[in-house]
Design goal:
Layout: H1 4-14, E1 21-25, E2 38-39, E3 49-50, E4 54-57, E5 64-71, E6 85-89, E7 101-104, E8 108-111, E9 114-117, E10 127-128, E11 139-141, H2 149-157, E12 162-166, E13 171-176, E14 180-181, E15 192-193, H3 196-206, E16 212-217, H4 221-234, E17 237-241, H5 252-258, E18 262-266, E19 277-281, E20 284-289, H6 293-311, E21 321-326, E22 330-331, E23 338-345, E24 348-351, E25 368-372, E26 378-379, E27 384-389
Parallel strand pairs: 5-6, 13-16, 13-17, 14-15, 17-20, 21-24
Antiparallel strand pairs: 1-12, 2-11, 3-10, 4-6, 4-7, 5-9, 8-9, 18-19, 19-20, 21-27, 22-26, 23-24, 23-25, 25-27
Helix pairs in contact: 1-6, 3-6, 4-5
Length: about 400
């Protein structure tokens, strides 16, 4: 059994970036990272653009101007202004080339076909210049930039329809257990509704990993070997829930050994999630997570999250850890380090009741994990504790 720190370091050393390219439409590229530098095909803005509703002026020495026309956003025509002339203009509209500045409408008085401005203004005032954001051929976004909603909007404004991005891993989730059934059935005695695969799928989706396939396998050695062999060959990452302990009907460990999966580590000195397995077969990373739901999800956030970030070549591979003040007491049972389900808010954290690895209801309202090292025997109210912030 190894320490948490050793397990994390082995994991980081073992999982390498995929560094594969794929092409996505701009609508489906959110959450991906650019595979290469991206250059702007146009100027943005593509014309001198009014920054507000007002009046475009061809400046002269007086404060009174003749109003000759109007330019709305989207209009293509360009009125020709002489000195002392103005056109009504709206935010985002193309400023005529013969206009020197735009005066906001709040500082203009309209009298018949004339306007009177409150004060003199400088040239180019309230005009967004051609290519102010980016010019044709300039670097728009660097390789490795995460395509956030703002980045998607920016690239869309440049007319970019498709982008080359780093491929995300293909992922398989395998739920094991004869006791598991789908919720579409009535619940017979001795059975439970399968939830781990849906829980892990939701966790992956929340992190914007969508190439996920779910599989089920009964507690049968040959079926387990066959299923694992197929998914390991077809995916970059395999998450198995249950069947990794040493019971008479736990066949995952035996099947992984049969398939010559290289064991990187098995069993970590922690609670929950002690019977955690991580291994590799060629370029595929394999996690065998505990069957208890809270233990499986804890291991996902502490370990699988790191693997996913490494595959995407991200530097900040772990979830953020901060110091927070406990607003509850907790007596730790046993001497193993523990990850405790908790609720964090504004510098304070509450350790919740119901810390059993089988209990999902506590995790359902948690947004953090409090880490209690093996030296800690009790957490008192107002103690400062290490807190892992979970994705929301």
């Amino acid at each position: 059994m190894i320490s948490i720190d050793t397990a994390i370091q082995l994991l980081k050393n073992s999982v390498k970036p995929l560094l594969l390219k794929t092409t996505k439409t701009i609508e489906k590229a959110g959450g991906y990272f650019l595979y290469e530098d991206l250059y702007s095909p146009i100027n943005m803005p593509p014309f001198r653009q009014s920054a507000m509703d007002g009046y475009a002026l061809c400046l002269h020495d007086d404060l009174t101007y003749n109003l000759i026309d109007e330019v709305k956003a989207g209009d293509a025509h360009q009125p020709i202004l002489k000195k002392g002339e103005a056109v009504r203009i709206f935010t985002g509209a193309a400023v005529p080339n013969t206009a020197d500045a735009v005066m906001m409408q709040e500082k203009v008085k309209v009298v018949d076909n004339k306007i009177v401005i409150e004060h003199r203004i400088n040239k180019e005032h309230n005009i967004r210049p051609l290519g102010e954001q980016v010019k044709t051929g300039d670097l728009a976004l660097k390789k490795g930039t995460k395509l956030t909603p703002a980045a998607i909007g920016y690239l869309s404004s440049l007319g970019i329809k498709n982008v080359s991005v780093f491929k995300k891993p293909s992922i398989a989730i395998i739920a094991t257990g004869n006791e598991l059934i789908e919720a579409v059935q009535d619940l017979p005695f001795g059975k439970i509704y399968e939830s781990n695969s849906k829980m892990l799928l939701a966790a992956l989706y929340s992190l914007k990993f969508y190439d996920v396939n779910i599989h089920k396998v009964a507690d049968d050695y040959e079926k387990t070997v066959t299923k694992l062999n197929t998914v390991i060959n077809d995916h970059d990452l395999v998450l198995i829930t249950g069947g990794i302990s040493v019971g008479d009907y736990d066949f995952v460990g035996k099947a992984l050994k049969k398939l010559q999966v290289k064991e990187i580590f098995y069993k970590v000195n922690q609670k929950p999630g002690k019977p955690l397995f991580f291994g590799k077969k060629e370029d595929t990373s394999i996690f065998a997570l505990p069957g208890n739901p809270a233990a499986a999800l804890t291991c996902f956030y502490v370990y699988v999250f790191i693997a996913l970030q490494n595959m995407m070549n991200r530097d900040a591979a772990e979830l953020p850890r901060i110091k927070a003040k406990s607003i509850s007491d907790f007596n730790k049972k046993g001497d193993r380090p523990q990850f405790l389900k908790a609720v964090y808010n504004d510098g304070k954290v509450e350790i919740l009741e119901g810390q059993s690895s089988a209990m999902q209801h506590t995790f359902a309202v948690s947004n953090a994990l409090v880490f209690a090292s093996e030296e800690v025997t009790k957490i008192n109210m107002n103690d400062t504790v290490e807190t892992i912030l979970l994705p929301v």
